[in-house]
C-alpha cells in the first residue's frame, strides 16, 4: 500500500512508524512550516520535535514536492492540526481526489461559511471524493513513534474501507479499534481538549493556593464525559463512543500532559485568559481546546432546549464563561458541579 | 443532630469538618489503633495524619469511651477501612442498634462464612437495624478536612433517610449527590481501587523503562470503567452510577495519588507482587485494591458466562493474573487491551 502523510509535525510523523513497520511504501510531506523538520529528517537526524528518527524506509518530501509525495497514494493521512487543515486543504486543491481513503488526526470543528459548525471530517470530505476516516484515542506522538503500546480508534461508517485502514495501520503495539460512529469520535476528540482546560484550571488552583484540589478536578471528570456524550448524542453520535478511547481515555492523557491542560493551569493560577492564550501562541502553541470550547458552546446552545446551555452542559457553560467573560474560576467551576 | 464518627483515621476525622460546619453535635471515637491520634487531638494539636486541627466543637473519645461516644447518636459514621470494619463491628456488639442511619466510608467486599462475597454494607446491615448508607466519590481526606471543594455520593434505596443524611452533611464546599443505587456505588468504590493498581502498573513501566507509557495507561481507563459497570450491572446496580463520582471520578483521584496506585507502580517497576504488598504492609499501609481485585475476580467468575472472566472482564482478569500468578506485567496488560 502506498501511504502519504501530509504534515511532518509530531503526529503525522509518528504515524510513519506503524505503517512502515507493516512494510508499506510511506511518504511524509512537510508543509512550509515543517521546512526545518524536513531538512533534519533528510540529513538522517532525529525528528526535532518527536525525538526518535523515522523508519529508514520512509521517504520525506518538502513543500514544493507535493505532487511527487502524493503520486499514486492509496491512503492519505492528513497529519495537521485543526488550525493547519484549512490552509493545507487550500494548498492541495484537488490533489486528494483519487485516494482510496483520507485519514485525519485533526481534532476540532469547522465553521462553515453560513456560520454553521460541523466536524472537521465534513470539511475534508468536501474537498475529496474518498471517505474520510477520523482517528481518535490517546496517542502521545512520541510513544507512537517509539513503538510503545498505543490503542486508538478509527471511525467511518463504510466498514470495508475501515477494515483496509485498520489492516494497514495496526501493529502489535499500535492497536486500532474500529467504529462506524464518526460523529461520536469527532465530538469526543474535539471536546476533550476543551474539557481538559477545565480540569487544568483545577490544577492551577492547586498551584495558586498551595492546597491540593484533587477532589474538585476528579468531580469534573465524569461531568466532562457526560456532557461530551450528550453533545455527541445530539449530533447523531453515540454515548459509548465518548466513554471509550476517543473520549474518556484521551481525556485522561490530555489532563495529564498537553497544551490544553497547560492553558487551564495558567488560568487557574490567575493569569488572565487573553494573556495566557497569547503567551502560548507566541511560543508557537495553538490551543485546540480553546477553539473547541467556543464552537462546542455554540453547538450546545442549539441543542440545549429550555434549560439553556447551563442546564444541559453546566461544565461547558462554566468553562465558556471563564474563557470569554472573565468569570471567577474557582466559584464558576464549583457552581457547575452543583 | 447528634453524629458519632467511629474511627479517628483520616477519612473519619475529615467528616467532622462538614458536619461540625453545619452546627451538629459531632463526636469522634478512636479505635485502639487511634490512641496517638486521640491524644494529639485532645491536646489541641493538629490531626497527626490529616494535617489540620479538627473543628473546636468536635468532642473526641478514646477507645474505652465507646458508650459515651455513642450515647444518643442519631447518625453513626463508620469511618474505618475495609480491613478495620470486622474488628470494629465485633467490638461494637449491638451498640449500633438505635441509630437512625449508619454511613460507611469503607470500600470493599466482605467474604461471608459460606464463602459468598457481598458488599460491605450488607455486613454492616446485619449488625444493626438502621439503614446503611454507602459513601462514594473522590474525597482526599485532607481536602475535606480543610474545606476544599469535594463532591461525593451517598447511596441508599430509602429516599427519606437519604435526604436526612444529605441535609446533615452537605455544605457549600462538601456537595452530596444522592442515589438509590447502593450496589453501584459499592461496586465502584471497591473496584476502582483494584483497577487503580492496573493503571499504576502502567506508571511503573514508565519508571522502569524510562519511556512514557501514557497511551497504555489511558487506554486502560475506559476498560476499567466498562468492567466496573458490567460487574455492577450483574449485581443489580447501574452503569451510570459507575460512570459518575463513585467510579470514574474516584478512579481519577486514585490513579493520581494513593496506595493502590503505589502498589501498581512498584509491580510495574519489577518488584515482585508479594514483596511489594509486604513492604507496604510493614509500613502500615494495607492495600484495599489488592483484596478487591481478588474478591472482584471471584464475583466476575460467577457472572462471566461462557467467555469466562477473560472475555467479559479482560482487564480484571489480567490484573488477577499479574497479582496472583506472577504473569508478566507489560505483555499481560497489553494483551487485555486487544
Task: Report on this structure.
The structure is a homodimer of 338-residue chains. With 338 residues, chain A is α/β, with parallel strands linked by helices. Chain A folds into two domains: 179 residues, NAD(P)-binding Rossmann-like Domain (Rossmann fold); 155 residues, N-(1-d-carboxylethyl)-l-norvaline Dehydrogenase, domain 2 (Orthogonal Bundle). In chain A, 54% of the residues lie in helices and 13% in strands. Chain A has 18 helices and ten strands. Chain A has an eight-stranded mixed sheet with strand order 3-2-1-4-5-8-9-10, with helices on both faces. The first copy, chain A, has a two-stranded antiparallel sheet with strand order 6-7. In chain A, strand 6 and strand 7 form a beta hairpin. The longest helix of chain A has 28 residues. The model of chain A has no long low-confidence stretch (mean pLDDT 95). Chains A and B meet through helix 7, helix 10, helix 12 and helix 18 of A and helix 7, helix 10, helix 12 and helix 18 of B.
In short:
The first copy, chain A, is an alpha/beta fold. Helices cover 54% and strands 13% of the residues of chain A.
* CATH fold call of the largest domain in chain A: Rossmann fold
Can you tell me the residue ranges of chain A where pLDDT is under 50 for at least 5 consecutive residues? Answer: none
Average predicted confidence as pLDDT of chain A: 95
Instruction: Assign the CATH architecture of the largest domain in chain A.
Output: 3-Layer(aba) Sandwich
What count of structural domains of chain A? Answer: 2
The main sheet of chain A orders its strands as 3-2-1-4-5-8-9-10
Amino acid at each position: 500500500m502506498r501511504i502519504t502523510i501530509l504534515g511532518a509535525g509530531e503526529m503525522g510523523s509518528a504515524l510513519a512508524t506503524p505503517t512502515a513497520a507493516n512494510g508499506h511504501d510511506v511518504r511524509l510531506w512537510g508543509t512550509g512550516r515543517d521546512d526545518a523538520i524536513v531538512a533534519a529528517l533528510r540529513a538522517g537526524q532525529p525528528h526535532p520535535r518527536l525525538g526518535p528518527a523515522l523508519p529508514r524506509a520512509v521517504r520525506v518530501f518538502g513543500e514544493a514536492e507535493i505532487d511527487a509525495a502524493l503520486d499514486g497514494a492509496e491512503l492519505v493521512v492528513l497529519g495537521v492540526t485543526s488550525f493547519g487543515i484549512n490552509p493545507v486543504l487550500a494548498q492541495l486543491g484537488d490533489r486528494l481526489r483519487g485516494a482510496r481513503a483520507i485519514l485525519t488526526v485533526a481534532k476540532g470543528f469547522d465553521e462553515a461559511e453560513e456560520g454553521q459548525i460541523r466536524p472537521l471530517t465534513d470539511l475534508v470530505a468536501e474537498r475529496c471524493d474518498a471517505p474520510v476516516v477520523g482517528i481518535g484515542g490517546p496517542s502521545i506522538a512520541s510513544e507512537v513513534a517509539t513503538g510503545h503500546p498505543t490503542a486508538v480508534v478509527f471511525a467511518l461508517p463504510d466498514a470495508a474501507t475501515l477494515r483496509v485502514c485498520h489492516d494497514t495501520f495496526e501493529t502489535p503495539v499500535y492497536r486500532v479499534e474500529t467504529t462506524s460512529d464518526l460523529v461520536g469520535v469527532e465530538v469526543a476528540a474535539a471536546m476533550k481538549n476543551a474539557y481538559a482546560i477545565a480540569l487544568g484550571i483545577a490544577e492551577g488552583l492547586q498551584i495558586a493556593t498551595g492546597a491540593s484540589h484533587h477532589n474538585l478536578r476528579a468531580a469534573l471528570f465524569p461531568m466532562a464525559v457526560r456532557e461530551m456524550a450528550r453533545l455527541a448524542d445530539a449530533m447523531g453520535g453515540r454515548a459509548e463512543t465518548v466513554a471509550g478511547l476517543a473520549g474518556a481515555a484521551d481525556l485522561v492523557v490530555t489532563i495529564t500532559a498537553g497544551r490544553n491542560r497547560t492553558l487551564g493551569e495558567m488560568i487557574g493560577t490567575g493569569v488572565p485568559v487573553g494573556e495566557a492564550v497569547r503567551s502560548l501562541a507566541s511560543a508557537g502553541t495553538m490551543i485546540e481546546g480553546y477553539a473547541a470550547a467556543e464552537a462546542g458552546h455554540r453547538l450546545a446552545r442549539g441543542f440545549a432546549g429550555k434549560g439553556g446551555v447551563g442546564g444541559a452542559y453546566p461544565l461547558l457553560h462554566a468553562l465558556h464563561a471563564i474563557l470569554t467573560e472573565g468569570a471567577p474560576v474557582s466559584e464558576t467551576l464549583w457552581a457547575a458541579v452543583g
